[in-house]
Amino acid sequence: MVWLLAAPAAFASTPKAGGDGARQIWQLLDYVAVDYGGAVENGALASASEYAEMVDFAARAQQQLQSLPPHAGKAAIASAIGKLRTAIGTRASATDVARLAQEANRLLLAAYPFPIAPPLRPSLARGAELYARHCIACHGERGGGDGPLAATLNPAPTALNDPVRAKLRSLGALYQIVSLGVPGTAMPAFKELPAQDRWALAFFAGTLPYDQAMAQRGEQLWRQGRSVTPQRVPDLATLSQLSESALAQEVGDAAAQALTAYLRRQPAAIQSGQPEGLALARQLLDASRAALHGGDRAAALRLALSAYLDGVEPAEPVLAARSKSLLAALESAMLAYRSALTAGDLAQADASAAQLSELIDQAEAASSATRATPLATFLGALAILLREGLEALLIVVAMIACLKKAGQEQALPFVHAGWASALLAGLITWAVATWLVAFSGASRELTEGLGSLLAAAVLLSVGMWLHRKSSAGRWQHFIDTTLAAALSRRSAWALFGLAFLAVYREVFETVLFYSALLADGNGTALLAGFASAAALLAAASFVLLRTSTRLPIRQFFALTSVVVAVLAVVLAGKGIAALQEAGWVGVRLVAGPRLEMLGLYPTLQTMLAQSAVALAALAAIMFNRRPASERGTASS
Hints:
Blueprint: H1 19-35, E1 40-41, E2 44-45, H2 48-65, H3 74-89, H4 94-111, H5 124-134, H6 136-139, H7 163-168, H8 171-180, H9 195-207, H10 212-224, H11 236-241, H12 244-251, H13 253-265, H14 277-293, H15 297-322, H16 324-343, H17 346-367, H18 374-405, H19 412-436, H20 441-468, H21 472-481, H22 483-486, H23 489-518, H24 523-549, H25 553-581, H26 604-625, H27 628-631
Antiparallel strand pairs: 1-2
Helix pairs in contact: 1-2, 1-4, 1-8, 2-3, 3-4, 5-9, 8-9, 10-13, 12-13, 14-15, 14-17, 15-16, 15-23, 16-17, 18-23, 18-24, 18-25, 19-23, 20-23, 20-25, 20-26, 25-26
């Protein structure tokens, strides 16, 4: 039975050359299976135009099969399509034609696999929204093919709620139609929609032929487990391939209709069966290696990136809390593997993949270990907030100290508003991350990466400004002539932005790590660690501010400018590293240390970025040391 074919991780299967061609052949054959009944009835033509379409689609499927790469099963597919064409030519029954088309598609999918299941459980609410936006004008509110534009279209839109067609059509078939459109009709391809949105639309369209009463009967059958047990439909991949007609051969027409209605309306009733986290990372890594050995390096790179973003990144907070060194080793190995793929070094890629597999085993063991003790949670919460908070603290304290030195306390509210707003945004982030959406790895890394680079750019300009004022004479001149104008409302808002960026980036990471610690259930210990770290940071800020006010102006600004420049170099390295993990920047490994606290990573891209920032800072320092007569108005 087609619907019983095992399809674990179908969404992550290795893309093969000609994958789009195989997908379109599958769609053509599925269209024949579903629509042939409208062309031929009892051996006689019911619609000459639809019959011509069936003949054409079957012929095109066989023709396009020739363009697919060689495969041991290709001849069997060609034979199956040939039998289908013969059946159509003799005007065989709709049941026979559907069976032959489905058999051809089964063989096609086995030889040329492509995604046939959603990676995440689709949202029917999202599907309804997309249907109202893109489909209702043609297909009508209930999918009857009677929308406002239907009368103007030739051929007319398909009636999605037609029970005869619905019985033969799977959710996977609907997904292919949404993704690729239907040639020769007004049905467009919605390739611009994300895959998850296309699945949501397919799932919603798949509910239109069924009413609530059917779904309620199906729920009773499902819960009783008499007709079909959850073990027979274990995951979204199976549900996506399941057609009512195939199910009816097992449980009868009435039960098949009710169960299909229920499962399509309530996909949450099915255990996903899809691997998640580190298990998904291992699977995607295996798929990446297979793609590489198959000669598809682009697919191997894409799958390797997905292995990190969709597999490792979601598990990062737990790993960071349990074993920071293991997480660092895993991230380094991921970069090494992607670097080998980029270079096309098959031997190095295999070696890196083997190392990655071992590290994933260790990470799974660390992640599945028993829950942390209250003491471990306390120490983890303490260390995380201290580590993340110190970086932001240095920037904010330096800004406050500079303004106080300048006697410009009126600008302090903007700085305080900046870091306070970042804390509030962090609370909102916590709520969103916990209750509303699951952040993808890419969105986290992009937030951190772009935020780090922007903060580095601002810090570099601030640091050089501070160094230029390190001469007492220049500082006094600056105070007397330009500071009041510089601290205009526009400049004050720039202070707000810098304070916000500096703090929110660290709050963002802290939210992710604390979410993992909270999963251990030691809420009181976590709050105690948070409060202790906050108290230590407050004490550190008090000491820093008191000390900075007693420093001579020259030493104060020289020291502060160096600190700020160093922080800019650190943030530049972290920003590029985050964008590498998100796939926005390439990876080329070089010999060197990995010290995350200093933003040092052994990749050419991070080192080049940090070198550029360091050189810019050095050039500015050298420029500032030149006599004012040589620098002209730049000294003002």
